[in-house]
What we know:
This protein is an all-alpha fold. The protein has one domain (3-106). Helices cover 81% and strands 0% of the residues. The chain has 6 helices and no strands. It has helices at 3-34, 37-62, 69-81, 84-88, 90-93, 100-106. The chain is globular, with a radius of gyration of 17 Å.
Amino acid sequence: MPKKLAAYYILFAISGFCGLIYESIWAKYLKLFLGHAAYAQTVVLIVFIGGMAIGAWLCGHFSNRIRQPLLFYAGAYRSLGAPPVPRSGWAASGSMLETTSARTILRP
C-alpha cells in the first residue's frame, strides 16, 4: 500500500474517531436536557444517521460534477468544522482543556 494512501486511511480513521467523540458529547448534553440517556442516544443516532443519508444522497446526486473528490471532502469537512472554533473558547484560551467539550469529557 502506498504511503499516501495509508495516510488518507489514517486521516479518515481519526475523522471517524472525532465524530464518535462529538456523538458522546451531544448525548451527554441531551441527557441533561431530555432527562433520560435512552432518549438522548436515540436523538443523536437519528440525527447522525440522517445526516449521513442526506450527505450520501447529495454527493451521489452531484458526484459526476466533482472533479477532485478528496479535495471536495476536505472542503466540506473544513466548512462544517471551522465555524464552531471561534465560539468555543479554544482559540481564545489557547488550551483545549478550557473548552466546554473537554470539561464535559473529563468531569467525573
